[in-house]
Amino acid sequence: MDRPELRPELPLPQLHAFTVLAEELHFGRAAARLGIAQPPLSQQIARLETKVGHPLFVREPGRVALSPAGRELLPAARRALADLSDGLAAARAVGDGRAGRLRIGFSASLALTVLPGLLRTFRERYPAVELDIREMTTAPQLAALHERGIDIGLLREPPAAEEEGALGFRTVLTEPFVAVLPSEHPLAAQRVVRVGELASEPFVLLPRAVGPLLYDRIAEVCGSAGFAPGIVQHAVEWQTVCALVGAGLGVSLAPASIRRIRLRGVAFRAVEPGTVRTRVAVAWRRGDPNPLVARLLEVVG
C-alpha cells in the first residue's frame, strides 16, 4: 500500500496531538503531556480525522487503539514533525551565526600571514559553518563584495575612498617591504638594501590593475628614493614574481611576509627606509544581514 502524502492542509499541531495520543493510547495522559485539557485534545483529533476522512483511533470503554488508518498515518506524521524540528534547529543555528556558509576572498600573500590563524580560530569557534575560501587579488575582491559574490575580503591596501561608503574595513596588520633579489646579485650580500640602490635595476611587479594601491605604494617607496621602477615583467601572484626574480629577470619590492616563500635562487633583504608599510585589512559590506560576517569580525577583534 502506498503511504499517504501529508498535504499542506494537515496542521502540524493536530499531527503533534495525534502522535502523542498514539504513543500514550490514553486521552488523559496525552492531554497532560501536551499541557492542555482533554476536551481540546479530543477536538484536535476529531478535526484531523475529518480531514483524513477516516477514524484514526478505535475508542472503546477503557481502551484506545490506533485504527488501520491511524497506523498508516503515524510514520508520516512523525517524519513531518521531525523534519520541522530539524528545520527549526537549523534555522536557529543559521540565524544565531552558528551555522551556514561564509564566502571569503583572500589575497594569496595572506596565506603566509594572517589567513591560517584566522581560519583556524574561526573553525574552532564555529565548526558547523561551511567556509568557501577563494583566492583573489584586491581589485576582484572589492568588485565581488559590491556584487555580493563574497561576504568577506582579506586584502592589501583597501581604497581610502571606500572608508565611509558601502564597504567597511578593519586593519588586521601592517608590514614593511623587503627587496626581492636573485641570490647571486651583489646586493644580496648586504643585510639591508637602500631603496635607491635598486634605481638601475629591472623590476618584476604585480600589474597595477590587480592591486592599484599596493602598486602605488611600491611606486611611492621608489619615488621617495628618487626613481620610478623600470618594470620589465608583470606577474599576478607574488610567488610567480619571486620565481621570475630567481630566474634573473629582475628585482622586486614586496611585503615582508613574502619571505616565507622558499625558492632556490631568491634572496630577501630588509630595505631602508623601512618606515613605509603595507596595510592588510578585512573588508565587508556595511549592514550585511549575514550573522556570520559579524562572527568573523569578532574573531578578527
TrEMBL record:
Keywords: DNA-binding, Transcription, Transcription regulation. CDD domains: PBP2_LTTR_aromatics_like. SUPFAM superfamilies: Periplasmic binding protein-like II, Winged helix' DNA-binding domain. It comes from the Bacteria. Residues 10-67 form the HTH lysR-type domain. InterPro entries: LysR_HTH_N, LysR_subst-bd, WH-like_DNA-bd_sf, WH_DNA-bd_sf. Pfam families: HTH_1, LysR_substrate. The keyword Calcium does not apply. Coiled coil: none annotated. The keyword Transcription regulation applies. Belongs to the LysR transcriptional regulatory family. This is LysR family transcriptional regulator.
